[in-house]
């Protein structure tokens, strides 16, 4: 049989406090220790601990590089970073670069041996382990909650902050921020990089806005307290998917519904699963998200096959590793359990319970074989079936009705499953562990901690009556106030009886009975042994509790009493009683003669049967072996368990596996070689006696000195160390087990062991402790154990060692007090002097007698005391002045020393209003010096200095509080209120909190700024919200621009329905709605012709393609959807001349959606002109649309015939005819190339040649040509003489030749200037020269190249289809006259000769 181990609970509210390496070693931080577990799919095994931190461990991580898996790192609230060897369990290196509490840690998966940590002040520290170098960065002035190094880019680190911000920094560029990822509204709890490099569209559902194809970068997942998991694209710096946590029905029973808990959302991206993410949920559930799934439910619940598999409280950390062909996930939770999951089956493999407090008591059931009960300081009882074969950690947890540390347990001797428990707040109850009922609680409470429980026969008055009217066993409880109660298990609601009354009456005791500290019934129920605070042991005969004997051997309080079992081979051993106390020695008493032949008067025993010495500190618990004769195990504050052979008075073995003091012990009732021990290290150990290498306990230096001297020595008083500035921490105010407040017996000073170790038990409070806290907090219920006036919380058994003496407070009259400690002769002389003064009516300067004479003498004593007061004791001087009635003097003294208090301030009004007001002003300055600004502002309000209070809060960034105060006390129109809103809004806007900033602007009636700040984020939702806000607020122009901007963004995503919905909100945007309508119809037609291939998010039914003419379709949709018709000429004219539809300048556009938008604008103007019968404008707008398409090589964007419009032109309008000819030239230009492409099979060489203007002939996809052939089939008759005259325009050829000449001159001048000029002005001259020509080209020359048309005509006439001779001569003449450049000549000769 192997030994088992229950470790301490993993620490809560840490972003990465557990991790597992590739070899299956799990490490996690618990308190200030790191525990290591070997993990398999079958079971876990605790292999060791890493100790060295002095405060709570806040982070832990393994190095993931091959061959370095044993290297790990930990961070702590002691502000140190330590690097360990997990195999050797030794410290390798450490650094203390951080000045604030460390909150995040991670090893770089790419850069070898790089450790990255972050703290609450926002500092990121990179530590290179091999070179011992560090480098610090400060990317953002925010509190860091978590960080994660990229597994693909060695210099990228993602950092999550408390306010929801995520940044990606590059450490190779001095921590430069690469991306700021905004989207979360609350704390970032975890970050996880995708294990697959590059951003692949196949990883995510396409409906989430992911791009086509793979991009550089990597996806990043984040979990936040705002209940969302977000997936970010680091290639584009924006979110691509948001996963909202589902509300699931809470599973499990180990939850107290009255305890609130805050959400913790951790995420983990398993290796080898790029499309699956594991995250925690609200109540302890773990869900796996499938990023490829569409629909609402993209998740699967782990452990859904049966109840009880899930955690019952929130999950903090998750990590995974591969073992064989299985991938296992490890999770830690607030329910103090570590679970192992199979990610393939999503089922729980095993559960390891952990402990969140001291293990105070253990108890094996005498009825249920192998059933072990644990009483733990985390307010829970655990019942462990230690004999379970399928689950070696088969543990049930009970919390109902406990609500305090469980300090005592006792199984019923006969009734199966009946377990009595006692707590540190004095509660006694009985649990039926095999039922779901809450426990029965005794109505009689102890005033202090319950030390021990024991089942025994009833004694009077409960023993009176018939056998059927009373229980066979009563429950006895002993607690810190020194009282033993007898409880009726049949009627716990009744009042329990104090057995001291029976002991007094039976034994006729008149003196005071010493306080009891432990009790133990002999197994046969005939005799009761009681241990007392003074070290005595009383043995009483049942049922009358007649005193048989008193054992006076110990000199300190009795901590534990145990009778030997009755089934030994030697009958006389059953009368052995073992006792342990605070003097580190165990005595065994043989009480056979006292019990079998009792005397009439009690016997006093002063000699033990056996003495077992070897421990070096307080004995806390004993247990006899039920399998051996005279075999005893003891545990002690020295941190060891000792097994004794009592009969031989020899040690057998010593167990040293614990790292703290031991508090309880039990010998296994099944296996004779196994012992169970628990201690204040939050662990329970099962160990074998036969496997221990040590025989005796370790000896401390102090113990060795004591053994050498062996003489009674006077104890020296130790000065109490002054607490640090700011007072003691919350966990340091709790005394350790067995620790006295001051001067109590059994302090263990002569044993040389310091017991100044604080218990740091974790407690659940309403909100959970903050990541930034120095330690766990404690509920108020834990204070019930302390004295009525004490501020200390005493853990279990600690009140055993309290002396009745209490420490005297410091006197405020130290001088006269010291005078009372002079030699006896001088004190007696004072008596004579006092008598002489009183009876001779004289006086003197004897200040020590001021308390006993008249008032004048008392005042002189006060004055002398004030002059001799020790530095720093100003409070005593203030009290003296107050007692004299000098209130103003007391206040002035405290104000001068900066020691004003609330008590003094409350007394100030007694001296008058002016004094009180001045005192408040001084107190406010004192509070500001100590940074208590809220309290200072409240005091300013009390003296009606409202504006000063508001200014104070504002100057220290307490905007929310300042606004609350101003709203409550000032008039709504007060300018101070608006100034507060505007100042706060500026700060919020700078920090990226745009929504709250907008609220401030709205409250300050600055509606324009509110809309602008919401629009800053730039996403569609923000723009739409800003537009609505501007419209509601009456900012019509801003609403107009924001709506248009939002609609254009939606247009880029092809979300036509949403774009029209946004534009519909503004009546002034009707013109833009028409443009978007044309754009949608045009995009749909181009998509049907395979000219564009993008996907459409949403569209309207009226945009579907049909056989109808394009412009006719536009007019029909306008009439049906937008009520724009030719009949309403006023409306059409308004749209045509409005500044909404602006003629855009002609420039080169390569982005197709933008190009289509500008073409749609031209077509819209064209359609409006047609409705107005303005035919010249129709052709002009049509020409502009064709020009835009031709500029970028798209000739097929507009193929409508212009014949109909030409017939309607005024023949006397020269401008209209010129525009008509330009449109015809475009059509002819397109038809010329289509003719060439349709009939030439050898165009590949030609299309790659460069022409005289330096532009390449645009290559056309063969499929596009074939698609267009059916729609624009032309007969050879089209290529008539008029066709070529349109293309072979000599004025255009002349202009283009002039432009080429100017360009050549500009090129040469530019070359000369660049060679000979060194001044900056010379570099600007080429730009100045090139600008006018470019404008001229665009305005007059047009995009058609006449020389190009000439070359194509000559080529087609020679190789494909002969043309009339005079047409060919015209082309050749133009080439000779205007194609004189070298490039044109070369192309002409190559293609035509």
TrEMBL record:
Residues 372-679 form the Gem-associated protein 5 second beta-propeller domain. InterPro entries: Beta-prop_GEMI5_1st (IPR056432), Beta-prop_GEMI5_2nd (IPR056424), GEMI5_RBS (IPR056420), Gemin-5 (IPR052640), Quinoprotein_ADH-like_sf (IPR011047), TPR_GEMI5 (IPR056421), WD40/YVTN_repeat-like_dom_sf (IPR015943), WD40_PAC1 (IPR020472). Pfam families: Beta-prop_RIG_1st, Beta-prop_RIG_2nd, GEMI5_RBS, TPR_GEMI5. Residues 693-777, 1313-1341 are annotated as: Disordered. Residues 1110-1337 form the Gem-associated protein 5 RBS domain. PROSITE patterns: WD_REPEATS_1, WD_REPEATS_2, WD_REPEATS_REGION. WD repeats lie at residues 50-94, 219-242, 612-646. SMART domains: WD40. One of its GO terms (cellular component) is SMN complex. Residues 66-207 form the Gem-associated protein 5 first beta-propeller domain. Residues 711-722 have a biased composition (Basic residues). Residues 767-777, 1325-1335 have a biased composition (Polar residues). Keywords: Repeat, WD repeat. Residues 752-764 have a biased composition (Acidic residues). Residues 849-1056 form the Gem-associated protein 5 TPR domain. This is Gem nuclear organelle associated protein 5. It comes from Cyprinus carpio carpio.
